[in-house]
Specification:
By secondary structure, the protein is mostly helical. It has one domain. Helices cover about 85% and strands about 0% of the residues. It is built from four helices and no strands. The longest helix has about 40 residues.
Length: about 90
């Protein structure tokens, strides 16, 4: 658990940028909720490092714009997996 919140916020931001990842993936990596990561990025980071915040904000905007695409792909994979499972059971 992080006791220095400022350090955690910077590490989260650096991880998100380095890995080009989502808030959910960062939350999983750091063992905290996605709400906490989002709060850290939107509320705490601008007060700590404005330049880093601008870079993270840009990436989060891209993630938001692409969210519907990732959701559709996940749904497609789910149904393809279910379909293949049903075909194997019927054989």
């Amino acid at each position: 658990m992080y006791y220095d919140i400022d350090l955690r916020v910077i590490k989260e931001a650096e991880y998100i940028l380095k890995e080009q990842t989502t808030v959910r993936k960062a939350a999983e990596k750091f063992g905290i909720s996605k709400s906490t990561v989002h709060y850290d990025m939107i509320r705490r980071l601008p007060k700590l490092d404005a330049a880093l915040y601008a870079r993270v904000k840009k990436l989060l905007g891209i993630n938001l714009a692409e969210r519907h695409i990732r959701g559709g792909m996940a749904t497609r994979e789910k149904f393809l997996k279910d379909r293949s499972r049903n075909i194997k059971q019927n054989v």
